[in-house]
């Protein structure tokens, strides 16, 4: 899914008349596009890094969840009073919930792709904007 803005962005740069050159508009447009391409590259790298970090955490989360299940089973085998069993089971359940929630959050709620879409859309819109150079009279 690609998000497109319907807003047309235009920029007017006011420059003192003494600073205006023939190629100023071309250089300004090139500089803005170069900056936007750099920022788009950074956003893509950041997105890839977040995706890698999330995916590399999956085996660790599965291991913690399996360990918590084994602990819950072990607590049920203990010969202690029921209140203590209940409290230990709740603590272990909370311990197990964290990796389960992290996995669900990563896969369904906050995909790394969605986090960086806003930045990408802004830089794509700025990259394609119209830039106008306006001569401003110098004040003395």
Q: Would you write up a description of this structure?
A:
The longest helix has 33 residues. This protein is 69% helix and 10% strand. Strands 1-2 form a two-stranded parallel ribbon. The protein has one domain. It has 4 helices and 2 strands. The chain has 140 residues and is mainly α. It starts with 9 loop residues before the first strand and ends with a strand. Helix 1 runs antiparallel to helix 4. Keywords: Membrane, Transmembrane, Transmembrane helix.
Integer-rounded radius of gyration: 28 Å
Strand content: 5-15%
Averaged pLDDT: 82
List the domain count as a whole number: 1
The number of helical runs is 4
Question: Order of helices and strands, N to C?
Answer: EHHHHE
pLDDT < 50 stretches:
none
What topology, given as strand order, has the largest sheet?
A: 1-2
Main structural class: mainly alpha
Number of strands: 2
Shape: rod-shaped
Q: Give the biggest sheet.
A: 2 strands, parallel
Cα end-to-end separation: 53 Å
Can you give the helix content as a percent range? 55-70%
Produce the secondary structure layout:
Blueprint: E1 10-16, H1 24-56, H2 58-77, H3 82-109, H4 112-127, E2 130-136
Parallel strand pairs: 1-2
Helix pairs in contact: 1-4, 2-3
Briefly say what this structure is.
The protein is mainly α and 140 residues long.
Write out key terms for the chains shown:
140 residues, mainly alpha, 69% helix
